[in-house]
Amino acid sequence: MRKTGMRKTTGWIVAIVWAFFSPWAFAQDPKTEIQTRLNSQFVLTRFTADHSDIVKAGSVLVLQKDNLVMFSIDTSVPPTSTYKNGKLQMGFGTSLVALRTGDTKVPQRAFVQGEKFWLAATLVQDDGVYLLVISDPFNNVRYYTKLKFPFNKKNVGSADEMMKTIAEVVSLDSGGDQNTAQQQPQPPAQPAPASTPAPAPMTAIAPPPPPADAPPAAPKTISIGQSRDVVIAILGQPQKVVKLNTKEIDIYPDLKVTFINNKVSDVQ
Fold first, then answer.
1. Which residues pair with 63 in a beta bridge?
2. How many other C-beta atoms are found inside a 10 Å radius of the C-beta of residue 7?
3. Domain check: are 258 and 133 in the same one?
4. The CA-based dihedral angle spanning residues 161, 163, 168, 172, taken in that order and rounded to the nearest 10 degrees
5. pLDDT digit string (tens) for 125-151?
6. Which residue intervals of 80-173 are DSSP H helices?
7. 254 vs 268: CA distance, rounded Å
């Protein structure tokens, strides 16, 4: 009897150890894995606190389904559109947001396939995956909504399955300008202008005639009796000056001027 009991105890221990060290015991929680995949695939866009302006641009999403209803960001709570059975549906409770705030004229806009918007937040909760998306301004109004991808009540499912489901509704815009979510209209292509014959070459213009030779400068002359200041004004400063009492000789490159009592007395 004791040996049988020991065998049963040993079998339970082996089963517990096997279960503990089994690779399945270390498998990542599906919701955690989904959040990890979202973080690796998308870059969140940072908005100001009132969602009116972008602080740092992130991923641009392209809508793959029609009829995604968004409310103005002035609404205190964004609507929630649930993707189920291949369609987007806005819950009855969410449609009463305007009534709860007392405003029955909340600006709304239904987005259709091909339109683009920014991804502002991702969240994995017990009932499903949520994406908060915000549009660029339309007539000075930004719109936002929460996209919900519900879990199966019996089984959360794998991260691969959830990412495929999300891809049915939105895809990452991998081309074009990532800094704008709106599709900018392109101007129609203009026809190429008709070819015109090349203009005939212009006749070469003759160069202007050289300027006429300037007349020679008048010779510089000085006279007996002129003061030294007048001579310097005419001839400039002398190279050398020799002074002998009241007599002074100013020497230039090609002549000598003798002054007595500051008057020209001789020129050589």
1. 170
2. 10
3. no
4. -160
5. 989 999 999 999 999 999 999 999 999
6. 97-100, 159-169
7. 9
Phi, psi of 9 (to 5 degrees): -65, -45
User: Closest by alpha carbon to 57, among 67, 70, 47, 65?
Assistant: 47
Angle between helices 159-169 and 30-41 (to 10 degrees): 50
Residue 254 sits in which domain range?
228-267
Return the structure tokens found at 56: 């740092």
Q: Which of 137, 155, 172 is the last residue of a domain?
A: 172
Q: 209 or 249: which carries more pLDDT confidence?
A: 249
Interatomic CA distance for residues 252 and 39, integer angstroms: 95
pLDDT band at 14 (very low <50, low <70, confident <90, very high): very low
Q: Over 80: is that where the pLDDT of 103 sits? A: no
pTM tops 0.70, yes or no: no
SS3 label, residue 246:
coil
Residues 131 and 232 placed together within one structural domain of the fold: no
- What is the Cα–Cα distance from 8 to 247, expressed in whole angstroms? 147
Examine the domain organization and report whether 167 and 254 are in the same domain.
no
**Residues 246 and 135 reside in one and the same domain:** no
**Residue 252, in any domain of the structure:** yes
